[in-house]
Design brief:
single chain; 204 residues; alpha+beta; Alpha-Beta Plaits; four-stranded antiparallel beta sheet; 14 strands
Length: 204
């Protein structure tokens, strides 16, 4: 039975003590619940800190998000509730975790060229962002892929390659607000894998 992603919300920041039954009891207070997907670690058999709750309409999803996102705390953790798809017209994922940091770009390279270069490896979640460091001396960009499968391939094939007469350097970007932590860690990859399974992101 396929999950209806348009009527499904992602619930994050869940404490391991939160049960599937407790999630059901919480959500049924704001909207009828069709089903709940609450992934567990295959080895430890512990919940992974997130769940997918399928409701019966998009209006139910909107009301659940308005009622529960950042307003409910379970076992000391505030729940994060959001749509699994931004909207029906935009299939890019809400969660752009596969974020690459590209540096030493030539001054002639623009966002369109970057999109064309990196887009060969898979769809991008949003357009590349260009910026400079070292008082404008170092030209860099952030490139956002929809899955780690595609970002890994781009990193492998393009790192230390010559682009417009410059050797570019590529690595996973640092996470915002988390000193020293880069995107691409095992937890993010697990979330990415689950998102692909349940239609949150499209592979092509």
């Amino acid at each position: 039975m396929d999950q209806n992603t348009e009527c499904t919300v992602y619930v994050g920041n869940l404490d391991p003590q939160v049960s599937k039954e407790l999630l059901y009891e919480l959500f049924v207070q704001v909207a009828p619940v069709s089903r709940i997907r609450y992934p567990k670690d295959k080895v430890k058999q512990e919940h992974q800190g997130f769940a997918f709750v399928e409701l019966f309409s998009e209006a139910d999803c909107d009301f659940a998000i308005k009622s529960l996102n950042n307003t409910v705390s379970l076992f000391g953790k505030v729940l994060k509730v959001r749509r699994t798809l931004e909207n029906a017209k935009n299939s890019a994922p809400v969660f752009a975790r596969a974020k690459l940091f590209v540096k030493n770009l030539d001054s002639t390279i623009d966002a369109v060229q970057l999109q064309k270069l990196f887009g060969k490896f898979g769809p991008l979640a949003k357009p590349p962002q260009l910026f400079t460091l070292k008082d404008g001396a170092l030209r860099c960009a952030y490139v956002y892929f929809t899955t780690f499968r595609h970002s890994d391939e781009a990193l492998e094939k393009l790192n230390n390659q010559i682009v417009a007469n410059q050797i570019i350097s590529i690595d996973y970007a640092f996470k915002e607000g988390k000193a020293g932590e880069k995107h691409g860690d095992p937890v993010e990859r697990l979330l990415d894998e689950e998102a692909q399974k349940h239609g949150v992101v499209k592979l092509t």
